[in-house]
Amino acid sequence: TVHAQVPHLVRYQGFLKDSAGAPLEGPYTLTFRLYAAESGGTSLWTEVQANTPVSAGSFSVLLGSIQSLDVMDCFFSGQTANSR
């Protein structure tokens, strides 16, 4: 039997560009959300990362470093909140 724990931090890397397609540069406030469905519904988790460094469009953050991912235990395990 293999057991896995719910991740407490998740590394996320992305690329930001303006409406003309030019890579962004500088610090930005980024908001991340997780949903149970592909579209629609209410977010299950939200984290705002202020002053995220963006260099040539690239950024890297640790999700869960500001707003704990512990509240997502039931989401990652496939259980509903009512089945706990």
Commentary on this structure:
The protein is mostly beta strands and 84 residues long. Helix content is 6%, strand content 37%. The chain contains one helix and four strands. It is globular, with a radius of gyration of 16 Å. The C terminus is likely disordered.
Order of helices and strands: EEEEH
State the major sheet: 2 strands, antiparallel
The residue ranges in which pLDDT falls below 50 over 5 or more consecutive positions are 80-84
Count of distinct strands: 4
**Strand line-up across the major sheet:** 1-4
Please give a quick description of this structure.
The chain is mainly beta and 84 residues long.
Which key terms come to mind for this protein?
single chain; 84 residues; mainly beta; two-stranded antiparallel ribbon; 1 helix; 6% helix; globular; disordered C terminus
Secondary-structure map with pairings?
Blueprint: E1 10-15, E2 26-34, E3 45-54, E4 58-63, H1 73-77
Antiparallel strand pairs: 1-4, 2-3
